[in-house]
Amino acid sequence: MGIRGVVAALAAVLAVTAAAQPAAAEPAAPPGVNDWGCRPSAEHPTPVVLVHGLGGAAATNWVYLGPLLVDQGYCVFALTYGRPAGVPPITGGFAPMQDSAPELAEFVDRVLAATGTDRVDLVGHSEGTVMPQYYLKFLGGAEKVRRYVALTPLYDGTTLHNTSEILDRLAEEIPIVGQIPDELCGACRQFFAGSEFMTRLNEGGAAVPGIEYTTIMTRYDQLVTPWTSGYLDGATNIVLQDVCPLDFAEHVAVAFDPHVGRLVLNALDPAHAKPVRC
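^ Alpha/beta hydrolase, sequence as received from the core. Prediction below:
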């Protein structure tokens, strides 16, 4: 099954699961993720925290990358954040990002306490490349993060015109997002290029000193426009099509792409990087 087929199947699962779950239910994590008894190995001493994108959740955004990292010996954790009342439990990221960042801060502290470590690595997708920047810059997170791998990042925001356009484009691949009223998406307005939130976040430069950034962009991104918003000064910037020219993965599909999986593994453990087999 191709990347688009995987995303279509995931969308169908999301719709069925949303209908079946009670409103107060908390979605389960993918297999092996959020094992609070996991102890980091000498080979992979830093736990990994996965931060989903707009419309995603711990149980859905990371069904591919979560188990992949677990299989490679990492202690892997994922949260679902930013879910206002009335939003289905398997989708999140809709609250204003300054309200979601404390959720990430609390989750990271819980991971550090459980694993006995002093830092984590972050892997974020879409909003998961922006909201954590607030945590790093304003909530003391920079001292607790070593590496930050950003999938489809948008450090300069997006030029989409309004909240409806963001939700409509996302709903094309995650249908449940189409059930979210515009007024419930406080984060949507913050993504716009030149917004007050993005301006404050980027004062003094987007990158936070002391953190090793890797960004992974796709030329076929239909939500981050232009896709070059993902370039970050001081980061290792990767364009997926420069690595695999025939990989047409767009914004959502990047999180389920085996080529991206290898790039993420290489970014987390550059000393043992392996070639990407296109």
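Confidence is low (pLDDT under 50) at residues 1-26.
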